[in-house]
Amino acid sequence: MVQKAPAKRGRPPKFDREAVIGAAIGAFFVTGYDATTLPDLEKATGLDRSSLYNSFGGKRGLYEAAITTYLDVAEGGLFEPLLVGTDDGYADLLTFFGFLRTGMTSPDATPGCLIVNDMASGADPEAASRYRGLLEEGMRRAIERAGTDDEQQRNDRAALLTLGVLGVNLISKTTAGDAGEIGRHIDAMTATVLDWRDSA
Q: What are the backbone angles phi and psi of residue 32, rounded to the nearest 5°?
């Protein structure tokens, strides 16, 4: 009786996982989850379809990896001045809006936000909820550090600024990144914060 040779195990994938996720973020950012196809992802990441399925579970799994990374980076970067910040909450808010303005009006900025762009389609409600939660909690903490003792006022102001940030991302997406229009709305939020500081 001839024995069969043991089946060879497939070689582990040799690619930079972080680079692949970064490329996927870029692809999903531009066209959104629904409109991004597997061929789009193959082209963006340099991986073939079988590798995408084997390593990420396909388009959905890669999207989830992309948004998790995106949110982690946002929490440790853009949102950090709000969530942690300094003893001067107003300065932290102004720093945040300064970062936002610079990033969203730069000539090479991609319009919108990976999470906000997909909110209306319901691509990932959990990610949308985490994004909104981080943003609003950051606003609330900064406003509290600014010395606002009234809890209802803190909540109202945090909600207002959160709505403004979500709105400016939608404006960015729908105006194809019109720097003038984006800047005008961010400047309005900055002016609101300055008014709060001046009347404190």
A: 80, 165
